[in-house]
Structures are given as structure tokens and as C-alpha cells.
Amino acid sequence: MPTNFLFLLNSLTLAIHVLIKMEKNSGTRVSELFGSLGSLLRRCMFRILSIGPIPNHFAFIMDGNRRYAKKQQLEEGAGHRAGFSVLMSMLKYCYELGVTYVTIYAFSIENFKRRPDEVQNLMDLILEKIEGLLNEESIVNEYGIRVYFIGNLKLLSEPVWVAAEKVMKATANNTKCMLLICIAYTSCDEIVHAIHESCKNKWEEIQPCNSHKVCNGGIEVVDGKKIDDGVLQSVQELCRVETNELQATRASTARSGVAEGVERTGKINGVAGHAVHGSCDKWDEVQSLEASRSGNGVISNEESKKLLVDPSILKVVDIERHMYMSVAPDPDVVIRSSGETRLSNFLLWQTSNCLLYSPNALWPDMRLWHLVWAVLDFQRSHSYFEKKKKQL
Ligand SMILES: *[C@@H]1O[C@H](CO)[C@@H](O)[C@H](O)[C@H]1NC(C)=O
User: Fold this and answer.
1) Fewer CB within a 10 Å sphere, N or C end of the chain?
2) 193: CA distance to ligand 1 center in Å?
3) Is the pLDDT of residue 214 over 50?
4) How many Å lie between the centroid of ligand 1 and the Cα of residue 173?
5) 124: how many CB neighbours lie within 10 A of its CB?
6) Is 259 near ligand 1, meaning CB less than 6 Å away?
7) What pLDDT, on the 0 to 100 scale, is given for residue 217?
8) Which among 143, 133, 121 has a CA at the least distance from the CA of 166?
9) How many alpha carbons fall within 13 Å on the CB side of residue 245?
10) Residue 361 has pLDDT above 60, yes or no
11) Residue with CA nearest ligand 1 atom 1
12) Residue 171 CA, closest ligand 1 atom number
């Protein structure tokens, strides 16, 4: 990128920085003037930024709300409230910039282990903010955003869960931008869930045929044919065993606390890749099994075993289809505030080709400036990531 261009951007963001500072110290009318000036400058800067590639999907880990409250000697809830208003600004900037997907880590399953009163306060705040999303003046209406809640929503209290469902339903026709809110989410839980669903899916495909019921959809071809009970049992066994294995890994990683994100991604993918072997979503295989039957219509145990350890039975894409995050492409940039560089069980499956940007600011101290730097960082490394993606 030409140096002149970077210099221009720097001057622009600095100007906005000064404007925001001045705005804080001035009266309402002056601040209105600066507000519109700032917004004009911001749009101007976004125009320039858009000459380069813009990330399609931003993900945020909003770290440092509690530390911020402590630093400012505020009560804990005040930190989260300040964090929420920064989140709204960040969302606005993202959509102004032309980002289509924004994912936020709102509440991890691990967070349920915090003090009960803190969890309760956070949940109350989350409920209040979810209900606020449908207000006339909310950002959801302003930008026509479709909202998804991502995670194990069953773990939420009923009012929160009901409110989340309501927002998803009410915004289901919006197509321009998406907001994915990870709540009661961890990557491990998502992966276990996806494998579970894949196995269940396969099992449901096989079962009606086995019990001589009419098969529907794409599996009608084998209507009426009976599949060897031994195979079915092994499929079921394998699904159960592999899922347990992953759960064990999850428990052990949870015990060891937050390991390095990269290292953990490797581990989890390894286990999941192995689990894929035992899973069961390939109807083709069952059909070829049908074909390979010997005259008496029974396949040997050897044959069924060979079938079930075949890695092509279930591919990574089959698991991916059942991920909560399958509604969006993988993120291009993850921003984690507070200078932390771990992923803390957030989007581990989806971030193998993703830039991690971690400014030192606590989340409520995040400003437009930080987002612009993240975009510049993305533009600098864009060709590298593109090359990587082509290699896949
Ligand atoms: C979305 O569109 C469908 C079909 O056009 C319509 O039936 C439904 O009421 C719409 N939902 C909302 C929330 O507007």
C-alpha cells in the first residue's frame, strides 16, 4: 500500500479522534456540529478504505468490561453497559464500511461458572438488550440486520431464550447484513453438537428402511430393502463412542484452562477428523453395500467393519453443515480487546485462515481508530490469506 495513502488515513483518523475528544468537552449544540462533521469525515475515510479489500466477516471478543469498571471505580454492571454502547458503535461502523457479517462473543458456557449474582445481572442486562433490539430506533431496524443467536440456547433461562427466538423470527426477512450473537456458546460444544446431529441424521436415514417403513426424499432408491442389523448397530455404537471421546477431550481441555488458541485448534480438529471416520452420513456407501451383498443377502462382519472405518463415510463438510455457525462464511478478522491473544474457545473450527487483531484497549475503550487499524492490518495480509485459501 502506498505510503501517501497510509498517511492520509492516519491524518483522517487523527482528525476524528480530536473531534471526538472535543465533543466530549463541549456543549450540546457544538457537539451536534462536531457529531455531523465527525460522521462526514468517517464516511470519507471509509470511502478511501474501500479502495482496498474490506473484510466480509468481523468477529469480536469483547474482553475487559470488568477491568474497565474496576479501573474507573464503577460498579461491575457499569462496565458491561459501557461495553454495550461501544458494541453498538462498532456495529454501526462495520455496516457503514460494508461488512456483511459481524459475530460477537456475548456469553460463553464457561461464564455460567461465575458468581451466581454476576451471572444473573449479566443475564438481566442481556435480556434487556435483546428486547431493545426490536425497538424502532435500534440499529437492527436502521440497517436491516438479520439477527442469529448462536449456541446452546437451551442453557439459557426461559425469558432470554424466548426473547432470542422472537428477535430471530422478527428479523428473518432481512438480508443485507447479519449479526451473529454467540450466547451460551463454546467451540467444543458446537463441534460435539454438530457431530451428534450428523450421526442422528444418518441414523434417521437408515432406520425407516430397516423397519420396512417407506423411505422418503433422496433415499427412496433403497425403499423396502433391508439393511443388515449388525451394520446399523455398529454405526450406532461408533457414533456414541466417538461423541463420548470428544466430550472427554472437551472436559480435559476445560480442566487445563485456556490453552493457546492455535494449539487447541489443532487438537480439536485432530479429534474431530478422527471422529469423522466413525460417523455416518453417506448414503452412497450404504448403497454400495447393498450391491456388495452376497447371494444369501447378508454381508459379513468384515465387510461392515471395512465400511464403517472408511474415512469417506462422513466428510468434514458434513460436520460443518451442522455447525451453529454454518449460516455464515468463516470470519476474516477476529478482534480481541485488552491485548489478549487467545481465542478462549471461540470459533476454533472457523478461524484457521483468519487474522487475529488484539489492540491493548479494554473493550469499553475501543474506538473507531482500532477498527480502522484492524482493516488496514487485514489489507496488508490479504494477499497472504488469499494464497492460503487457494492452496486448500
Ligand atoms: C417474512 O416474509 C414471509 C413471506 O414473504 C412472510 O410470510 C412473513 O410474515 C415475513 N416475516 C416478517 C417478520 O416480516
Assistant:
1) C
2) 29
3) no
4) 6
5) 14
6) no
7) 39
8) 133
9) 19
10) yes
11) 173
12) 13
Whose grid coordinates read 449474582? 117
Q: Which atom of ligand 1 is nearest to the CA of 169?
A: 13
Which pTM value belongs to this model?
Answer: 0.73
Catalytic residue among 63, 189, 332, 365: 63
As a whole-number percent, the residues of the chain with pLDDT over 70 amount to: 65
Decide: 170 in ligand 1 pocket, CB within 6 A. Answer: yes
Confidence (pLDDT) at 24: 59
Provide the grid cell at 97. Answer: 464500511
pLDDT of 269 over the 70 cut: no
Question: What band does 281 get if pLDDT is binned at 50, 70 and 90?
Answer: very low
Q: What pLDDT, on the 0 to 100 scale, is given for residue 263?
A: 35
Beta bridge partners of 178: 101, 146
Does the active-site annotation cover 63?
A: yes
